[in-house]
């Protein structure tokens, strides 16, 4: 898909952060945009923002955990714009678990898996058959350095789901060969971004309630950044517009690995690969913060 103009893009997790930035960039590319998010109020505001910028956009409230809602999202996009050419399975949450992995609540695991992994599976099943039938399309699944490359042991639920996204997308890419449909896996980094991930607990659905009270307060984005700095990690920020541009350019180039040009990423990849080749214990893991 060397030319995105006139095509239709669907972006989940589109009410803010990376998703909204992708929607804006797709609009700038001349695409028609469908934003989806479980936060209906913020979604409406974000769709209005893009509309005010002159883009052809609609917002469709969608909980990606529910396949019926994802099918409805697909149907709404096709009814409104006639087809779907790009799907960005971007919706994701931080489940907010704390303490040792073996003490994490099972309901936290369920929530993380349902959104971060099942949400992408739902997106693939709902949209890919139509793309294959039309002989054109592209799927972008959002992963993370945390899990996809160098897991942070302090957030195993997020890391596990994002590692699963990489393998899922590798399999998807291979099976799509010869169909005219491409697939990419997005690593937003290399540095921190001001997204709504740290606010996930504020929008936690009632059907996945915490089963025991937290022992520590939920951490904010700024508190996390301070903690990283106190542990000797220099904090840099990746502009959301840069990530969105990487996605658009990657789709046009039919590029699978949407990785930033980053010495940090390259070093993390090498450390993990070297550990496997040498049959060495995983010393590349981050600290348990």
Task: Produce the secondary structure layout.
Elements (H helix, E strand, L loop, with lengths): L7 E5 L4 H12 L3 E6 L2 H13 L4 E5 L5 H15 L4 E4 L16 H29 L2 E6 L2 H4 L7 H20 L5 E6 L34 H10 L9 H13 L4 E2 L4 H15 L12
Parallel strand pairs: 1-2, 1-4, 2-3, 4-5, 5-6, 6-7
Short structural description:
Helix content is about 45%, strand content about 10%. With about 290 residues, the chain is an alpha/beta fold.
Written account of the structure:
The protein has 289 residues and is α/β, with parallel strands linked by helices. It has one domain (8-277): Rossmann fold (3-Layer(aba) Sandwich), CATH 3.40.50. The protein is built from nine helices and seven strands; from the N terminus they run βαβαβαβαβααβααβα. The protein has helices at residues 17-28, 40-52, 67-81, 106-134, 145-148, 156-175, 221-230, 240-252, 263-277, and strands at 8-12, 32-37, 57-61, 86-89, 137-142, 181-186, 257-258. It has a seven-stranded parallel beta sheet, sandwiched between helices. α1 (17-28) crosses α8, α3 runs parallel beside α4 (106-134) and α4 runs parallel beside α6 (156-175). It starts with 7 loop residues before the first strand and ends in a 12-residue tail after the last helix. The mean pLDDT is 90.
């Amino acid at each position: 898909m060397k030319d995105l103009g006139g095509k239709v893009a669907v972006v989940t997790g589109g009410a803010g952060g990376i998703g909204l930035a992708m929607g804006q960039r797709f609009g700038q590319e001349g695409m028609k945009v469908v934003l989806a998010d479980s936060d209906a109020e913020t979604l409406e505001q974000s769709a209005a923002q893009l509309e005010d910028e002159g883009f052809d956009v609609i917002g469709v409230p969608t909980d990606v955990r529910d396949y019926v809602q994802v099918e409805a999202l697909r149907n709404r996009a096709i009814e409104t714009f006639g087809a779907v050419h790009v799907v960005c399975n971007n919706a994701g949450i931080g489940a907010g678990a704390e303490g040792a992995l073996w003490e994490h609540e099972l309901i936290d695991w369920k929530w993380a898996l349902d959104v971060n992994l099942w949400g992408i599976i739902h997106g693939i099943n709902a949209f890919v058959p139509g793309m294959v039938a039309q002989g054109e399309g592209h799927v972008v699944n959002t992963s993370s350095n945390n899990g996809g490359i160098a897991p942070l042991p302090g957030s195993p639920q997020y890391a596990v789901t994002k590692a699963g996204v990489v393998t899922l997308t590798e399999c998807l890419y291979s099976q799509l060969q010869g169909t005219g449909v491409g697939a990419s896996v997005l690593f937003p980094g290399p540095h921190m971004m001001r997204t709504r991930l740290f606010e996930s607990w504020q929008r936690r659905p009632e059907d996945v309630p915490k089963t025991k009270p937290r022992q520590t307060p939920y951490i904010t984005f700024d508190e996390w950044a301070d903690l990283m700095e106190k542990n000797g990690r220099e904090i840099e920020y990746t502009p959301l517009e840069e990530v969105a541009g990487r996605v658009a350019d990657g789709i046009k180039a039919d590029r699978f690995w949407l990785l930033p040009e980053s010495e940090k990423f390259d070093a993390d990849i090498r450390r993990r690969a070297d550990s496997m080749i040498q049959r060495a214990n995983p010393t590349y893991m981050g600290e348990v913060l």
